[in-house]
Amino acid sequence: MSTDPTSPHHWRLLFGSLCLSAGHGVFLLIAVLQVGLPPGVQSQRGLATTGAILWFIGAIPLALVALLAREKIEAMAPGPRRLLTLLTAGTTLGVFALYAVIMQIAN
Questions:
Q1: Which of 1, 20, 70, 82 has the fewest beta carbons under 10 Å from its own?
Q2: How many Å from the N-terminal Cα to the C-terminal Cα in the chain?
Q3: Which letter does DSSP use for residue 60 in this model?
Q4: 58-101 confidence digits (pLDDT tens)
């Protein structure tokens, strides 16, 4: 990432991470509404599965907020903006990895 404080790279990574999660969240939301919760929710992995589903579905409004708040995010001080971006991207990667493991175990 660029060290230039005016660079839009942080916002792009933040928004891209949220859109990736939100895209999966849309499919999960439709599936949960039509079929119900996945089998992992009723098992010992229930908390992890529920947390992953909540992150994906919760990313839908968060992506919209990030889109609407782009200027404010880009105007943040570099440290907090970098922290917000890395936490969001790291959470997205971690939840996708966790969800992949849970779904592989469930099958």
A1: 1
A2: 38
A3: H
A4: 999 999 999 999 999 999 999 999 999 999 999 999 999 998 88
- Give the C-alpha separation, 18 to 105, whole Å: 26
The H or E element spanning position 70 is helix 70-75
Residue 60 corresponds to which tokens in the numbers above? 């839908």
pTM: 0.84
For residue 107, give the 3-state DSSP assignment: coil
Contact indicator for 13, 85 with CB cutoff of 8 Å: yes
Amino acid symbol at 2: S
Residue with tokens 């991470």: 17
Angle 14-67-64 from CA coordinates, rounded to 5°: 100
